[in-house]
Design goal:
Elements (H helix, E strand, L loop, with lengths): L7 E4 L6 E2 L2 E2 L3 H10 L3 E6 L6 H10 L9 E3 H11 L6 E4 L2 H9 L4 E2 L6 E4 L7 H12 L3 E4 L5 E2 L6 E2 L1 H12 L5 E2 L5 H11 L6 E5 L2 H10 L3 E5 L16 E3 L5 H5 L1
Parallel strand pairs: 1-4, 1-13, 4-5, 6-7, 6-8, 8-9, 9-12, 13-14, 14-15
Antiparallel strand pairs: 2-3, 10-11
Helix pairs in contact: 3-4, 5-6
Pfam families: Hydrolase_6, Hydrolase_like
Family: Belongs to the HAD-like hydrolase superfamily. NagD family.
EC number: 3.1.3.-
C-alpha cells in the first residue's frame, strides 16, 4: 500500500473507466474519491477517432463530470507535435475524420500520394487497399514512419476492433521498415506534456490503465507511478521491461491503494 495520496491521476478511458457505452463498476466512486482528495485528473485516450468534446459528453452521459481541458487524445497530441516539428514535411495519413480535422486545424501539410515525407498511421475503420499501397510506396521511398498510437486492438464489449498497431505490423512486414516514433501512449512525448500540464512532480503523478504496453509503460518511462488494472487475468511476461508499481483487478480497488 502506498503511503500518501498522489497529487494527480492520469486515467485511461477504454477498458479502464468504461467499456463501450457502459461504465465499469467502481469507476464513478473511485473518481469521486480522487476529487474529494483534491487531486488533479486527466483522461488520456489513444483512440483518435473522436474529439475531446465527444469524450467529455460521453463521460457526462455516464455520470462522470469532467472539463474539456481534462481530456487528452492521441489525435490532438499528434497534431500539436507535427505543428511544432516541421521536419516531418508533407504527411500521408492513414486515419479517420477526427484526426484529419485536428491536423487541418493546425494547418499540417497533408498529401494523398506517395510523395509524402512522412507516413502517419492511425486507427482507420475505413482503411482500403489503395491507401495501404500509397503508404507502402512512400515508405519504400524513404518516408518517415510514425503513429498516433501502437494499439493492436481497441477494446469493445464484443471483442474489440483492429487498431493502428495491426496496420503498422502489415507495413513493417511488407516494407522491412520499423516504426520510428509513437506520439500517443506510451511515448515520452506525451509523458512530458502531461507533467508540464499538471505542474506536479513526477513522483506525485499516477497513471492508471489496463494495458501494460501503453498505460504502464507511459507511467514507468516517464518516472510516474503506474497502476495496472489486471482485468483479464493476464500474466506479465518475464522479459517485460516496464512493470507496474501496483496491480489491481478493477478500478474500484484504486482508493484502497492509498487509504
Amino acid at each position: 500500500m502506498a503511503t500518501a495520496i498522489p497529487k494527480a491521476f492520469i486515467f485511461d478511458l477504454d477498458g479502464t473507466i468504461y467499456l463501450g457505452d457502459h461504465l465499469i463498476e467502481g469507476a464513478k466512486e473511485s473518481l469521486q474519491w480522487v476529487r474529494k482528495n483534491n487531486a488533479k485528473v486527466r483522461f488520456v485516450t489513444n483512440n483518435p477517432r473522436y474529439s475531446r468534446e465527444f469524450y467529455r459528453k460521453k463521460l457526462q452521459r455516464l455520470g462522470i463530470e469532467t472539463s474539456f481541458d481534462e481530456i487528452i487524445t492521441s489525435a490532438q497530441i499528434t497534431a500539436k507535435y507535427l505543428d511544432e516539428n516541421h521536419q516531418y514535411g508533407k504527411i500521408f495519413v492513414i486515419g479517420e475524420e477526427q484526426l484529419m480535422a485536428e491536423l487541418n486545424e493546425k494547418q499540417i501539410n497533408i498529401v494523398e500520394d506517395d510523395t509524402a515525407d512522412t507516413v502517419l498511421v492511425s486507427f482507420d475503420t475505413d482503411l482500403y487497399y489503395e491507401k495501404l499501397m500509397t503508404a507502402y510506396r512512400a515508405l519504400n521511398k524513404g518516408a518517415n514512419f510514425i503513429t498516433t498510437n501502437p494499439d493492436t486492438v481497441c477494446p469493445t464489449p464484443d471483442g474489440g476492433l483492429i487498431d493502428s498497431g495491426a496496420i503498422i505490423a502489415a507495413l513493417e512486414i511488407s516494407t522491412s521498415r520499423k516504426l520510428e516514433k509513437i506520439i500517443g501512449k506510451p511515448s515520452k512525448i506525451l509523458g512530458d506534456l502531461l507533467i508540464q500540464d499538471l505542474k506536479e512532480n513526477v513522483e506525485d503523478c499516477v497513471v492508471v490503465g489496463d494495458r501494460l504496453n501503453t498505460d504502464v509503460r507511459l507511467g514507468k518511462q516517464s518516472n510516474m507511478i503506474a497502476v495496472w488494472i489486471r482485468a483479464y487475468n493476464e500474466i506479465i511476461p518475464e522479459n517485460t521491461e516496464y512493470r507496474p508499481d501496483y496491480t489491481i483487478k478493477s478500478i474500484a480497488e484504486l482508493p484502497s491503494l492509498f487509504d
